[in-house]
Amino acid sequence: MHDYVGSQLNNTVGLGGYYSTHLYTQRAVAIIEQFAQRQEAVKASTATEEEEDVWEAASPSLFLYLAYQSIHSPHAAPDSYQDRFYTTIPDPPDGVGQHRRVVAGMVAALDEGIGHVTSAIKVAGMEQRTTRVFMSDTGGTEPSFFSHLCLLHSGRGRRHPPESDLAPTHT
After folding, report:
1. Per-10-residue mean pLDDT for the chain, 171 residues long?
2. Strand 2-5 versus strand 8-11 pairing type
3. Are 85 and 101 contacting, i.e. CB atoms less than 8 angstroms apart?
4. Is residue 77 classed exposed, middle or buried when 0-12, 13-18 and 19+ CB atoms within 10 A define those classes?
């Protein structure tokens, strides 16, 4: 995990054993809270209502790019998240039940993290001036049990259909 603060990129070390979704969430919430506190301090220092209106119109913005690793390999989730799905995801004969519970646990942890970040935005009073964009990548590099790329069946970064199939058919 890296923090870009000002003009410096800081490598966060010594966090082995922590689930990255939790770490990313905690750091995002801390950044939002710190930003809100700085904004409140500046706002409190304005002397008049007119100055406050000017400050509100010109207040700096926060850009937070939060790129969770979940749900991505390695497929792992804390037991407390997997355990939620023992009654709803059985162990079928093909043995995929455990993997499905892991993936469901990863999604549950991600959902919880997004909820905490959303709550921090609300508490900070930033909800009305916040845009949230959710994106996902296209999955794995090659089709496998864990990855099905549909139209990108030949792997990420390759064109489908091949360029020869894109040639005009008229003469």
Report:
1. 53 67 93 90 72 63 87 85 93 88 94 96 90 74 53 52 53 52
2. antiparallel
3. yes
4. buried
